Model the fold of this input.
Amino acid sequence: MQRPLSLYALCGSQRQASTSLRLLEALRLISPDGVSIEVCDLIGSLPIFNPDHEGDRTPPVVQSFAAKIRDADGLIVSCPEYAHGIPGGFKNALDWLVSRDEVPFKPLMFAHASHRGDLVLEQLIEVLKTMSLRIVPEAFLRVPLAGKSDEAQGTTLAEAQRTGALQASLDRFVQAIRAHM
Done:
C-alpha cells in the first residue's frame, strides 16, 4: 500500500474569480484516493519580502506558508501572465522562499489556465529552476479558460475532465513524485 500524497497548489492570481484558481480547484476535486490537494490561501497575506525579516524575524504568516510547502510532497502552480510577467504578489511569495530550505528538489507541476501566457511560463521556469525546484514537464497541463465566460469556462473544464486531460496530468505528476520517493 502506497502512502498518501499531499500536494499544495499555489495560485499566482489573487482574484476571487481567477481562472487559475478555478483550474486548481478542478484538479483538487478530481484528485484520486490517496492524493490530497490543498489550495494555498496565504499568498495575499504575505508582507512584502525584506531580507532583514528573515531568520528569527520571519513573520508568522511566512513561517506558516513555508511549513505548508515543506510538508507537501509536491507543488502545483497555476499563474496568469500580468503585464508580460509574473504577478507581483506571486513573485513576492517566491522571494520569501528563495533562501529557505523547503523548496529545493520539491517536485512541481504547472497547470496553465490560458491559451497564451508563455512569457510567464518562461519566467517562472527560470525563477523556479534557480530555486532548485524539480519541474515535472510531462505533467504540464494547459486548459484555456482565460477570457471565457463562466459558462464557457465550465464547459471547457468539463471537456478537459471528460477527455481525461486533468486526470492524466495529475497522474503523471503523482507517478513522477512516487518514482523519486
User: Anything to note?
Assistant: The first helix runs from residue 19 to 30.
